[in-house]
Amino acid sequence: MVAPATDTLSIPIIDLDPARSGSSEDTARVAKDVYQAFKHVGFAYIKNHGVPQELIDEAFEWACLRSIAIIEVKLIANEYNRAKGSSHSPQSAKDKAPHPPEGWYHRGYSGIGREKVVQMVFDKEGIAEKRKTPDVKESFELGNETDERMPNIWVPEEVLPGFRAFFTKFFEVCYGVEQLMLKTIAIGMGLQEDFFLNYHQNKTNQCRLLHYPPVEEELLRLGKAERIAAHSDFGTMTILFQDPVGGLEVEDIHEKGKFNPAPFIPGTAVVNIGDLLMRWSNDELKSTLHRVRAPPLVDDSGLSGRMTRPRYSIPYFVSPDRDRVIDCLPGCFGPGRPKKYEPITSREYISMRMNATY
Ligand SMILES: O=C(O)CCC(=O)C(=O)O
Ligand SMILES: [Fe+2]
């Protein structure tokens, strides 16, 4: 059943449960809703997605308290250090897992200002210009434990015991959501149900722990600082868990440049289509621009110098296996509907976009 999130917000809420446990008619109904959402909005909220709430809570606990946040980690780390008689500071813990200099090798910890998300800007000068307005965020990236091209870069076990084991499990559970979504998208598009699954065998996905520290609200509103600038995601789709703070905004499909809030809705994850699936479908499914700005004001007292609350989010980026060629899907081109894009491998496209952000 699809329900609008609010009167003004066009992102539908889709219950995945019938597609998991219902009849083939139930699955077909969910698949139709998923297809409509991605065709008309590019975004959907999914509920009964299959990631238990306790696991999500624990993931945020790691992100907020034990992993990447600076202030909170200090407290935890100090307690931990006292107990262990060791001398790790939280910053040095993060510095023990640094993101490599190459943009494409997207693993490990990136401090504030390290990554600057840009939208289709690839020339050096253009990128340098964009970097003048930094993204005020820090992140930790991890992927499939068996990925040989991009091995994970973990904070050492003795510094953050249990972190690696937890996120290895979390990553696998998210893969289950991915599989269900890929199946419903394929059915919704009239393809064999395992069509996309066959392109996503190697779990070349990426899970990211994002922390946007407090920043002066006015700087965000004036565009002098950004949390994450307007961009489209690169791969097949993104499954995003967000905290209740808010700030995620999605471009209105009918009005370029107008961004609508995508607030936290308890019990849901946000799913959006990435560029590769848009290319694959000859633009039938939309890779919609989105960004993170200041969360909505609770009271607009106009005080300057006011700080925003920190925001945490955990996106799981789904990409096709690296060597697979993404070419226009059957049924998405024909007489009077030419292919809009050249075929490209998943690796080529994603590396090109990633390299522009570091
Ligand atoms: O923090 C968020 O909600 C958005 C993150 C995002 O869009 C991204 O990392 O691509
Ligand atoms: Fe994104």
UniProtKB/TrEMBL annotation:
Gene3D superfamilies: B-lactam Antibiotic, Isopenicillin N Synthase, Chain. SUPFAM superfamilies: Clavaminate synthase-like. The keyword Oxidoreductase applies. Pfam families: 2OG-FeII_Oxy, DIOX_N. Residues 203-320 form the Fe2OG dioxygenase domain. One of its GO terms (biological process) is small molecule biosynthetic process. One of its GO terms (molecular function) is oxidoreductase activity. Signal peptide: none annotated. Keywords: Iron, Metal-binding, Oxidoreductase. Belongs to the iron/ascorbate-dependent oxidoreductase family. This is Gibberellin 20-oxidase. It comes from Penicillium argentinense. The lineage of its organism: Eukaryota, Fungi, Dikarya, Ascomycota, Pezizomycotina.
